[in-house]
Amino acid sequence: MTQDQVIQDQTDSSALDGDAGFAARSFLRSGGLTSDQVRRRPVIGIATSWSELNPCNLPTRPMAEAVKRGVAAAGGIALEFPTISLAESLVHPTTMLLRNLMAMDVEEMISASPIDAVVLLGGCDKTVAAQLMGALSADKPALSLTTGPRPAGRWRGGELTIDDSWRIADERRSGLLDDRAWREVEGCISPGPGVCNVMGTAVTLAMIAEILGFAPPGSSLLPAGSPQRLASAEQAGARAVELARDPVLPSRLVTREALTDAWRLVCATGGSTNAVIHLQALAGRAGVRLSTRHLREASRTTPTLGQARPNGPHTLADLHDEGGVPAVVRELGPLLHLDRPTADGSNWREVAAGTAPGPGRALRPAADPVHPHGAIAVLHGSLAPRSAVIKRSAASPRLLRHTGPALVFDGLADLRARIDDPDLPVTADTVLVLRGAGPIGGPGMAEVGGLPIPAKLYRAGVRDMVRVSDARMSGTAAGTVVLHVTPEAAVGGPLALVRDGDPIRLDVPAGTLDLLVDPDTLDRRARDTPPATAPRPARGYRRLYADHVGQADEGCDFDFLHATPEETP
């Protein structure tokens, strides 16, 4: 039953007693609902991505029960329904390959179901991105609730968070960690369900949902399974009933101003580089132009304030204690559009005004930033004509300006086969290049852009190098890593023309990434070596993906899912 039908029923008591609604009412009543419930109450859908193949999303089950309590108390009916679920660590080759499939699933289930509003329950990063994308395209009132970060682990007397896994893996590859220690740490680093417990992509997407107006203010950093998170879910259920009666549509929330504010939030806190792609996808769904030049300028004019891992020594709990997203909004106030609505019906100006300043550890004040520019820099240049990105806050300052010879790996199999070869021709000044790992070449643009340090260099004490690829990188990772080089090699981007020994110049302060090879040589290479494109899939979703996926600067969404001018509000 839709809200329009509820309104109609209030003026015409027979409106919902005709043949058209009979089957829907009878099927709903078979589940125990009453005649009055199926006729006169707002229906709130709960889209859940709970799955035993997705530990990040396991806490959604008790959250769904809390949402139902809130919906019932506010006079609505809550009906839970599943969608597919994407766990980054358990899906091959990458969840990014399936993000658009999940977004289509979410969109069609919201659109086709007789619901007045929806509460989205998710956790792992592509899950949240797909839910927001699908809800925006369906354009029914929607709230987003994520499971929250899991607790930190402990091992041999010290605390472990998920970003430690990269260091531990390097130590293992380099022979510095024995079999016993490897098995021990495997059982300690993720001690419970919930999302990654640092400023990774899942937490970044939760914060984006909050600042866009889909999640209650202050909710994104609440710990997984905590009483506070369940209370927030119950309150969201009640709010969903209010939205069913007085709708605020996603198309009103996802504007150019809101997306720019979300991008500034990411840049201020040192969020995941993956956020760039998901924000571009939302922009395409909303019919909003969000150019990489615009993002570059917004980053340049946004200070880095966050020092939560992997950007600094502090934890997400510290950032939450210092005010979370509302505190970031308070510090960035003059740069943001504070009259935009929040998910609880207020606006960001009111929320920021009611947020007290913290001690300035995990979140530095704008008057004393970590860095005057944003944590993520957008690059352009001869090697990245359309764009690339780097997480400045997680890079080595000495490498932000660097020129070195390229060492090229053609795809992930080549990288794995040679990276630890003791005869690999590599020094600490080498620029490691991975290509053939983008949206088409991957396929799916897996999180393999954070190339490992070659074992022989790691044993010699090298802990960071400049790395360049058309792939993505986990938001939990760190290093001087240039990602999302666009166009990717598989569609003929300049990355396909790089040869071993070619000098590559990275200049993050200048915002450039250049291949220092003369144009005539590159033209000759382009004529002699056509792009090494992957075979076109014969059937199914992968065929659809290969035919329609966009590049990173287009959000890697399908071209036919972008809003047309006629559809744009």
From TrEMBL:
Matches recorded under SUPFAM superfamilies: IlvD/EDD N-terminal domain-like, LeuD/IlvD-like
Family matches, as PANTHER family: HYPOTHETICAL DIHYDROXY-ACID DEHYDRATASE (EUROFUNG)-RELATED (PTHR43183:SF1), HYPOTHETICAL DIHYDROXYACID DEHYDRATASE (EUROFUNG)-RELATED (PTHR43183)
Organism lineage: Bacteria, Bacillati, Actinomycetota, Actinomycetes, Kitasatosporales
Annotated protein name in UniProt: Dihydroxy-acid dehydratase
Keywords: 2Fe-2S, Amino-acid biosynthesis, Branched-chain amino acid biosynthesis, Iron, Iron-sulfur, Lyase, Metal-binding
NCBIfam families, A to Z: PRK06131.1
Family: Belongs to the IlvD/Edd family.
Domain Dihydroxy-acid/6-phosphogluconate dehydratase C-terminal span(s) in chain numbering: 363-556
Positions of the Dihydroxy-acid/6-phosphogluconate dehydratase N-terminal domain: 41-350
Pfam families linked to this entry: ILV_EDD_C, ILVD_EDD_N
